[in-house]
Write a structure and sequence with these properties.
It is a single chain. By secondary structure, the protein is α/β, with parallel strands linked by helices. It has 15 helices and 13 strands. The structure holds pyridoxal-5'-phosphate (PLP).
Length: about 400
């Protein structure tokens, strides 16, 4: 317990706001929970700053080393690298699609020059990166000294756990538990909002959880129709929510089906090659807590511009989908809605420019250095063996 407190103290000391997760009131019953004051300016720091420290603590006691391997289309990679750069027992390899992540996102990763951090730019797209990572997890025999791979994607349980906390914190800060709060959560892999669901399971009174998606609206379609199907991926102004399958949704489905594991296994097996229809009973149970809305790029820009004109508050495009969905799903003027602001607007200057607000977000001082610092990354072919070979060589070179 004492050790955990120490780890948590160090984790959140890296956040640049004294409140760590400040609440900003933008209208009578409208709040923004700012989750972007960590080192990489996105909410993923809440979990990944903790995860790196917890891993290192446990590995030191076990006298083990592990290798983190992950694919990123943007925010996950930088948050994972920031979370692990000071680890003594963790080596981390992050794959990103070469020339397909934003300048800021790439620089946040590639300007980290610690010896246990490797950035690999794959000649391919995000799915290619993801496929190499998945295949490497299936066959880890290439790793030296019996080391193991560790995943840090959004189904990582420790990440979800760390995210439960700010639901309790924010609800208590503005009138909970007497007054049930509604949360609007910009969602990709259903990780952050699943943490909200777990807070409800732990007893936090919540009126509604609003699933906010961008044009990649798989979750909104499930909520509206009960049909879970795959469609093509769209590139949007909120790239960290660009997914076609929401990995954590399976966890909610498990509860929707009364925790019947074999039923879920059968449905997911079916989902491998065809859409699935969720029973109306199961959908009803989900709809008693969740509502949803999809917010396309044009609306996202409108929300950024309107919110700024109305309140003087500048939203990033991800958070704007949350505010947009909160407007669509609001059931009464009295309802208290907290939108989770998942990224700092300075991370997405192009979207802000497109919204034509008339101001540009200023980059927080602790991030300015990335625009001038040396970058280090290795471009590799879209090939698992090439990547594994590179990892082995680098790990061997590090030991000598
Ligand atoms: C990762 C991310 C999301 C989506 O989070 P999930 O937990 O996958 O739902 C939303 N906004 C930003 C800025 C992110 O980085």
């Amino acid at each position: 317990m004492k050790d955990l407190r120490k780890i948590l103290g160090e984790t959140y000391a890296t956040f640049r706001h004294p409140a760590i997760a400040p609440l900003v009131q933008i209208d009578k019953n409208e709040w923004i929970l700012e989750l972007f004051h960590g080192p990489t300016l996105a909410f993923k720091d809440f979990a990944l700053q903790m995860l790196g420290r917890v891993l290192d603590y446990i590995l030191e006691r076990r006298n083990e080393r592990v290798v983190i391997m992950g694919a990123t289309s943007g925010d996950t990679g930088s948050a994972a690298i920031e979370g692990c750069r000071h680890c003594k027992f963790v080596d981390i390899f992050i794959l990103h699609p070469h020339q397909r992540v934003s300048d800021v996102q790439r620089r946040q990763m590639t300007t980290v020059l610690e010896d246990n951090v490797w950035n690999i730019a794959i000649e391919g797209n995000f799915d290619d990166c993801q496929n190499i990572v998945k295949a490497s997890f299936r066959d880890q025999s290439f790793l030296p000294d019996g080391r193991k791979l560790v995943a840090v994607n959004s189904i990582n349980w420790a990440r979800i756990m760390a995210q439960i906390v700010y639901y309790f914190y924010s609800a208590l800060a503005i009138g909970g538990p007497q007054k049930p709060i509604t949360y609007s959560v910009p969602t990709g892999n259903f990780g952050d909002i699943f943490a909200g669901y777990l807070a409800v399971k732990m007893g936090l009174p919540v009126e509604q959880l609003i699933i906010a998606t961008n044009k990649n609206d798989v979750l909104h379609r499930i909520m509206s129709s009960g049909i879970y199907d795959r469609t093509n991926l769209h590139h949007t102004l909120s790239p960290s929510m660009d997914i076609s399958i929401s990995s954590n949704f399976e966890r909610l489905m498990f509860d929707m089906y009364q925790r019947d594991g074999s039923k879920i296994a059968a449905l997911m097996a079916q989902f491998e090659d065809q859409p699935i229809t969720i029973s109306s009973e199961a959908m009803e149970s989900a709809r008693s807590l969740f509502s949803s809305a999809a917010v396309d790029d044009a609306t996202t820009c409108e929300v950024i511009a309107n919110t700024f004109a109305r309140t003087g508050y500048l939203l990033d495009p991800h958070s704007a989908t949350g505010v947009g969905a909160s407007v669509q799903c609001r059931t009464s003027a009295e309802q208290t809605i907290v939108t989770l602001a998942t990224a700092h607007p300075a991370k997405f200057p192009d979207a802000i420019a497109e919204a034509d607000v008339g101001v540009s977000p200023s980059v927080p001082p602790h991030m300015e250095h990335i625009f001038t610092s040396e970058e280090r990354f290795t471009v590799l072919d879209n090939n698992k063996s090439t990547v594994n070979q590179f990892m082995v060589e680098q790990l061997a070179a590090q030991r000598t």
